[in-house]
């Protein structure tokens, strides 16, 4: 079974809480890469990349992250199959 690389954009309710949000997300998935992105007008988002099994599906992970306290919105920005 192949793995997929998933990138999510996580929008916080409070832009100053990105570090706490990053810690909370890392308890749900094993983060490979994360970075802050300026959206505009003081709005920031957290871009998170992680690996998962292809068969597991992204929807369940997206719902878990959206349920974290302080998360306003979650957007899947890419899903790419990777060969390990």
Write a structural description:
- A 4-stranded antiparallel sheet has the order 2-3-1-4, covered by helices on one side.
- It is elongated.
- A hairpin with a 2-residue loop joins β2 and β3.
- It contains 2 helices and 4 strands; from the N terminus they run βαββαβ.
- It is an alpha+beta fold.
Q: Main beta sheet: strand number and arrangement?
A: 4 strands, antiparallel
What is the gyration radius calculated from CA atoms? 13 Å
CATH architecture assignment name = 2-Layer Sandwich
Approximate strand percentage: over 45%
Q: Spans with pLDDT under 50 lasting ≥5 residues?
A: none
Distance between the termini: 10 Å
Helix content: 10-25%
Give the rounded overall mean pLDDT: 92
Q: What is the general shape?
A: elongated
Please trace the helix and strand order, writing H or E for each element: EHEEHE
CATH homologous superfamily grouping: Ribosomal protein S6/Translation elongation factor EF1B
Strand order of the largest sheet: 2-3-1-4
The secondary-structure class comes to alpha+beta
> What is the number of helical segments per DSSP (H or I, 4+ residues)?
2
């Amino acid at each position: 079974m192949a793995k997929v690389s998933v990138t999510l954009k996580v929008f916080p309710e409070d832009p100053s809480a990105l570090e706490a949000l990053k810690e909370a997300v890392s308890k749900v998935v094993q983060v490979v890469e994360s970075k802050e992105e300026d959206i505009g007008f003081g709005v920031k988002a957290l871009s998170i990349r992680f690996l998962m099994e292809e068969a597991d599906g992204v929807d369940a992970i997206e719902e878990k992250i959206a349920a974290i306290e302080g998360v306003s919105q979650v957007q899947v920005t890419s899903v790419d199959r990777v060969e390990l």
